[in-house]
């Protein structure tokens, strides 16, 4: 595509805002309908049917069904102008095995399952973006792919979409965007990570095998609990003294199990503990795993214990593309307001398999605020008390629509000097 010089369009932004406002009640209805039928993992038949129904209502959307090996969907929309880029907009759509408390009229109808991470909202605002872009198809060229991904919470869906469904091809995707409703960001605002929106993810499970015996004579035993605690206490120094650099990184032990709660006078034979490890950089994460096993080996050698270690690398980081940051910021400000969008300077170490997309094409992940202004803090992600703020749906839909519009028009990415798009027009 020949590079052209485009300017931001205040008239188009006003039109997108008007259309987003018009769609608000529809998006709230869709979000609450999805909220009532949460489904976990990759088997999402009711969620799938709601999203398919809504996509089929939108003029200009070609719906690709049964993506991601079953319950994913891809909507493809082409603008009516002759030239343009291809933009991928993604929403994850699965829920969590959490029991939702009573109180909401649209409470989960599925026992032990809840949209406690807001993916119902993600699906709703992406449907909203598709509805808006359909209304302005005469004004843009190129292609937008609306991707509804199952299985994010269990690390699935993304690879299948890319490798089996070839979602990044035909036409080839130039850039990708995703977002999450974020409890620490105020409703009506958007935070954009300057570098890492999510970190590399790994996990570890350690089993220490000692020698069982009576607690009155510990010298005749090999205490696996003592060895496990020593390893636990050494883990912070593994990060600070064994691994160089200032990249964000963390070990978190999330469980430790040993003995029998009914027996108080026996040192057990085994102690098991495990948890997660995160880092902004994959090389750092791999080094963390190696150094952790070295520490386990050393402590067990001194104690006379044996061990089994299962140290796993799950996925890469979501790194926001530098050449898209400024365009994304200005696009979001054009929809929400100059004081409503800001950069987050520290790295986030949560996990998100949108990394499968961001490692292959330039991408940006946004944190869309859901914390009401009058509240200093609200329950976090994966909590049974998590609440999505429906007021943010129209703004999020508008931002995604604008990213699709400007992305297709070729002015979101900074280019090398001389191409005519090296900087945004104010």
Describe this protein's structure.
33% of the residues lie in helices and 27% in strands. The protein is built from nine helices and 16 strands. An eight-stranded mixed beta sheet has the order 1-2-4-3-5-16-6-15. Strands 10-12-8-13 form a four-stranded antiparallel beta sheet, covered by helices on one side. A two-stranded antiparallel ribbon has the order 7-14. Helix 3 crosses helix 9, helix 5 runs antiparallel to helix 6 (282-303) and helix 7 (322-336) packs across helix 9 (393-409). It is elongated and about 80 Å long.
Structural class: alpha/beta
Total of helices: 9
Strand residues, percent: 25-35%
Average predicted local confidence, pLDDT: 94
General form:
elongated
Helix percent band: 25-40%
Order of helices and strands: HHEEEHEHEEEEEHEEEHEEHEHEH
Number of strands: 16
Cα-atom Rg, whole angstroms?
Answer: 24 Å
Q: Poorly predicted ranges (pLDDT <50, ≥5 residues)?
A: 1-6, 416-426
Strand-helix topology:
Blueprint: H1 10-36, H2 45-56, E1 61-67, E2 72-78, E3 81-92, H3 119-135, E4 141-149, H4 158-163, E5 175-186, E6 190-193, E7 196-198, E8 200-209, E9 213-214, H5 224-242, E10 249-258, E11 266-267, E12 270-279, H6 282-303, E13 306-315, E14 318-319, H7 322-336, E15 341-344, H8 355-358, E16 363-371, H9 393-409
Parallel strand pairs: 3-4, 3-5, 5-16, 6-15
Antiparallel strand pairs: 1-2, 2-4, 6-16, 7-14, 8-12, 8-13, 9-11, 10-12
Helix pairs in contact: 1-3, 1-9, 3-9, 5-6, 7-9
């Amino acid at each position: 595509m020949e590079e052209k010089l485009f300017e931001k369009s205040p008239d188009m932004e006003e039109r997108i805002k008007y259309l987003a406002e018009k769609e608000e009640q529809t998006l709230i209805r869709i979000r609450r309908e999805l909220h009532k039928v949460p489904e976990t993992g990759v088997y999402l038949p009711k969620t799938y049917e709601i999203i398919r129904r809504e996509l089929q209502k939108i003029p200009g959307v070609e719906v690709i069904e049964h993506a991601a090996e079953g319950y994913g969907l891809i909507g493809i929309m082409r603008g009516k102008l002759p030239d343009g880029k291809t933009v991928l907009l993604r929403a994850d759509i699965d829920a969590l095995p959490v029991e939702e408390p009573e109180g909401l009229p649209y409470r989960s109808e599925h026992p032990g399952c809840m949209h406690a991470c807001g993916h119902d909202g993600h699906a709703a605002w992406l449907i909203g973006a598709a509805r808006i872009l359909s209304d302005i198809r005469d004004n843009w060229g190129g292609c937008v792919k609306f991707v509804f991904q199952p299985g994010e919470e269990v690390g699935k869906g993304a690879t299948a979409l890319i490798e089996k469904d070839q979602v990044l091809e035909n036409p080839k995707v130039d850039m990708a965007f995703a977002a999450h409703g974020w409890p620490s960001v105020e409703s009506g605002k958007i935070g954009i990570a300057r570098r890492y929106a999510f970190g590399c993810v790994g996990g570890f499970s350690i089993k220490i095998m000692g020698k069982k015996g009576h607690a009155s004579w510990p010298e005749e035993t090999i205490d696996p609990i003592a060895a496990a605690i020593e390893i636990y206490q050494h883990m912070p120094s593994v990060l600070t003294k064994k691994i160089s650099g200032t990249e964000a990184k963390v070990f978190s032990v999330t469980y430790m199990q040993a003995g029998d709660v009914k027996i108080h006078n026996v040192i057990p034979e085994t102690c098991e503990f495990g948890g997660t490890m995160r880092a902004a950089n994959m090389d750092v994460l791999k080094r963390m795993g190696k150094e952790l096993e070295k520490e386990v080996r050393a402590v067990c050698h001194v104690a006379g214990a044996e061990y089994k270690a299962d140290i796993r690398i799950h996925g890469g980081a979501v790194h926001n593309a530098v050449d898209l940051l400024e365009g994304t910021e200005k696009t979001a400000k054009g929809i929400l307001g100059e004081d409503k969008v800001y950069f987050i300077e520290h790295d986030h170490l949560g996990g998100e398999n949108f990394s499968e997309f961001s490692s292959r094409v330039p991408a940006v992940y946004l944190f869309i605020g859901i914390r009401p202004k009058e509240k200093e803090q609200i329950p976090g992600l994966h909590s049974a008390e998590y609440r999505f703020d429906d007021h943010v749906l129209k703004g999020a839909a508008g931002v995604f629509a604008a990213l699709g519009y400007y992305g297709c028009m070729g002015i979101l990415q900074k280019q090398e000097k001389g191409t005519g798009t090296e900087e945004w027009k104010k």
